[in-house]
Amino acid sequence: MKWSDFETRLRGEHLGNKRFTLTIKRVTIEETHPRPGATEQTPVLYFVETKKSLVLSSVNQRTLAGLFGDDMEACAGGKISLEAVPMKVAGKEQLPIRIGRADVTIAKTTADVETGEIKEVEPDALTDAEHEGEATE
What we know:
- The model is unreliable at 122-137 (pLDDT under 50).
- It is globular and about 35 Å long.
- The chain starts with 11 loop residues before the first helix and ends in a 6-residue tail after the last helix.
- The longest helix has 11 residues, at 58-68.
- The strands form 3 sheets. Strands 3-2-1-4-7 form a 5-stranded antiparallel sheet. Strands 5-6 form a two-stranded antiparallel ribbon. It has a two-stranded antiparallel ribbon with strand order 8-9.
- By secondary structure, it is of the alpha+beta class.
- The protein has one domain (3-32, 39-117).
- It has helices at residues 12-15, 58-68, 128-131, and strands at 19-32, 40-47, 54-55, 79-84, 87-89, 92-94, 97-101, 109-111, 118-120.
């Protein structure tokens, strides 16, 4: 068991140096705490493949609007890619997650039901239905 198993939000460290394609289950508005003493109402994405959610930055909100339009509910069922992008913020190295257009060449992903950890599925492990683009559970 790992400490990260207890985290409920996705972080760049969870993705490592890989790009994942995930299916959006729903978008909710939740109270978040971006800094001590401050609270905000922020959109949060939930995914079919993992129990971990993603608090949406303004950059990722604009990306989703560009991909799916201005209606937040239009995202549900859509596929996106997630990638951790190293960058300096206020002189400190950060690893924010960035959303992108889903790419069919990206490896299929699955999540451990108990921990929510995202893993790549080996191409040989895919069923014929998955090779044809059908979802199987």
